[in-house]
Amino acid sequence: MRSRVMPKPSWNLEYLMWVFTRLSGLSIILFVVIGISAGLLMGARTQMDLGTLMRWGFFPNPNHVLDSDIPDLFLWTNGFWQVMQILVVFFAATHGFNGLRVVLEDYSSPGFWQVFTRFLIFLLWIFSTLVGIYVIISS
Q1: CA-to-CA dists, residue 6 to 3, 11, 41, 72, 92, angstroms
Q2: What digits encode the pLDDT tens for the residues 6-31?
């Protein structure tokens, strides 16, 4: 009886993006849990409704809590939350556009159109990430 030789995993772009997709999905969940937990610790439990808290958890923008009854907005408007927003935008955009790339490559044959769609998705990713970071920094 002969044993089968197992192929060694190669570190190509496809494998790295597969790993990144799993890690970015987990990181987005982690950022949301941190945002909701920190919001509850900062007084959101008694001073805002559930919709505002969820909006804060997914995109911690101080403009989301301006209409609530929070007396001290300093806790909600510091640089830590801007960094959290930028990380959420980066991971979510990269996760989503990589998923779009995988789906489109499933339905296209290798060649010019596959290279063209990869380039177009890359440009859309760069544009949407930069616009997201601009909105975060300017708000």
Answers
A1: 9, 16, 50, 60, 34
A2: 666 678 888 888 899 999 999 999 99
